[in-house]
Specification:
This is Lipoprotein. By secondary structure, the chain is an alpha+beta fold. The protein has four helices and seven strands. It has one domain: Double Stranded RNA Binding Domain (2-Layer Sandwich), CATH 3.30.160.
Amino acid sequence: MKRYAMLPLLVLAGCQSDASVRSKPPLQSFSSGKTPDAAVTCLIPSLQENYKAIGAQRFVAQTLAPGKEYDVVPTDGFVNGHYIYTVNVKASGSGSTLSLYKGQAMLPSITRSVEAGIRACL
């Protein structure tokens, strides 16, 4: 029975990582006049409000470079070694660029709800 205990770890080891999802071009990118900090402050509640799925979803910011770059990700959206959605917020000129990465096949209606959450913060 013990030899089967490692099976879930082996299955996860072969899965796509969040870094590999972000190494590909984003699904969409948006320009915002907001600083990265202001964009993230807007995005978290906006994504939570607009997210349309069976259950509610919470989002959090992961700091990559304070004041310059963040990833906004769902707290319950880590599937097969990566987040179902990642919104990368990066300083760009006097504003920021918000890039949507999709790491898991999701219904188009859910993707549109995430896009609506982003658009509300431009």
